[in-house]
Q: What sequence folds into this?
């Protein structure tokens, strides 16, 4: 008997591999991950199924599904997978592919914009400035927030890696 | 004296400044010298920014690592998210010359280079391994004699394959650190259940995140713990911000704040005014 490996979507396989998801092929669909997944217990997200979809190269279905964003990256599945599939790395790679195709959740845009504009994931509020001062900390922490040259450096890095296009 | 570059991150300095303040005070009392990591940015956040662009995430993390490298210091963080990001990025860059070269091409745009030498530590690890429980006990002047829930969060011990701190299914480090203050950690169901906030779920699907937190709160309540003690400002924010909606009111303290209390800091300095769930000692 001659066994032929059928590659459903070699382009996608290569793209996923390039982004750190090559080991998805190690998954033998035992379902341990889904059984232990706290997100799957609360949502329609099924991590075993996502791994299968990735193996089959179902790119259009993957980039369009909301469930891709319901993984909290808790690593429970990674700890217990008998094949040591780097599941979280694969989820991250799939999300990167989705975002590159314009599938970013509207609720995630502000965090991306915050990083791009001030170098932090959350904004600086007047309230926190007061609270900081009241306990003897400088109003603004000594990060990129305090140094426009450092922020300019960070912006260059974000632009050089294409983050400006994600934010727009 | 142990010396570290203090990586602030975002949530502690910009949402719970008492966590930053108590870290500074406690470190001084325990003989850990914290050097400012001037000009650092967001780690960047592993669940959101890394999920948007791994390339951006790695390059921006490398910039933070390079800032510490220039000072010749290891990094200490007080946040599981920052730890997750910076540890993972350092693990990758310090062991993979090809990735390092790619990142350095980006860093060259700002005349920076990362040589791949920065080590990244979580504050709890430094306390446990370097300071040691006995020295912490000796520094306690105001024992924190309460029943508490120890909350590890996910990215301190996991993925254990690269972190190699303790078996996440059988961990004791945080309990030992908390109990050094006189507190008692109450055993509960599902102690390692995620708070729900990670991976962009808090921002993306807040109701889903809340469902995780609710199970945790039910388990914590059933264990008769009167405080939640975390080691991550993001878990901290999740627990603190959703309890009102869910009908719970269990005060949330970062380990540094518990140490601050036990080592005699005043309530004002501990920054409780930033907490949603009132903290009354
Ligand atoms: S636990 Fe591992 S091998 Fe089993 S289905 Fe999940 S990813 Fe595949
Ligand atoms: S890391 Fe994601 S997929 Fe894995 S168990 Fe946690 S929530 Fe589920």
A:
């Amino acid at each position: 008997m001659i066994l032929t490996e059928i590659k459903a979507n070699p382009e996608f396989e290569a793209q996923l591999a390039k982004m750190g998801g090559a080991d998805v092929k190690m998954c033998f669909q035992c379902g341990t991950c889904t059984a232990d997944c706290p997100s799957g217990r609360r949502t329609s997200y099924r991590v075993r199924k996502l791994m299968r979809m990735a193996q089959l190269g179902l790119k259009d279905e993957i980039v369009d599904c909301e469930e891709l964003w319901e993984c909290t990256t808790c690593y429970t599945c990674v700890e217990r997978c008998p094949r040591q599939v780097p599941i979280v790395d694969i989820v991250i790679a799939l999300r990167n592919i989705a975002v590159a195709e314009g599938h970013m959740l509207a609720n995630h845009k502000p965090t991306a914009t915050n990083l791009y504009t001030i170098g932090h994931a959350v904004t600086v509020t007047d309230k926190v400035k007061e609270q900081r001062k009241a306990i003897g900390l400088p109003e603004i922490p000594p990060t990129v927030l305090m140094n426009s040259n450092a922020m300019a450096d960070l912006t260059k890095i974000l632009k050089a890696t294409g983050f400006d296009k994600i934010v727009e | 004296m142990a010396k570290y570059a203090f990586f602030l991150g975002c949530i502690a300095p910009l949402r719970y400044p008492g966590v930053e303040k108590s870290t500074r005070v406690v470190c001084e009392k325990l003989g850990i010298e914290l050097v400012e990591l001037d000009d650092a940015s967001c780690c960047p956040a592993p669940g959101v920014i890394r999920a948007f662009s791994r390339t951006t995430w790695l390059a921006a993390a490398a910039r933070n690592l390079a800032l510490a490298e220039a000072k010749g210091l290891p990094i200490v963080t007080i946040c599981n998210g920052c730890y997750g990001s910076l540890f993972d990025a350092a693990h990758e860059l310090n062991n993979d010359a090809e990735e390092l070269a790619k990142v350095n091409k980006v860093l060259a745009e700002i005349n920076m280079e990362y040589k791949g030498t920065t080590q990244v530590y979580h504050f709890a690890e430094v306390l446990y391994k370097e300071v040691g429980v006995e020295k912490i006990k000796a520094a306690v002047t105001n024992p924190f004699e309460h029943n508490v829930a120890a909350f590890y969060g996910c990215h301190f011990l996991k993925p254990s394959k690269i972190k190699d701190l303790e078996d996440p299914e059988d961990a004791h480090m945080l309990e030992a650190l908390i109990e050094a203050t006189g507190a008692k950690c109450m055993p509960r169901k599902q102690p390692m259940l995620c708070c729900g906030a990670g991976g962009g779920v808090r921002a993306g699907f807040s109701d889903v995140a809340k469902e995780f937190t609710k199970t945790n709160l039910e388990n914590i309540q059933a264990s008769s713990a009167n405080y939640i003690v975390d080691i991550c400002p993001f878990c901290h924010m999740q627990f603190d911000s959703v309890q009102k909606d869910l009908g719970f009111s269990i005060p949330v303290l970062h380990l540094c704040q518990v140490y601050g209390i036990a080592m005699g800091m005043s309530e004002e300095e501990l920054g409780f005014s930033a907490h949603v769930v009132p903290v009354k000692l």
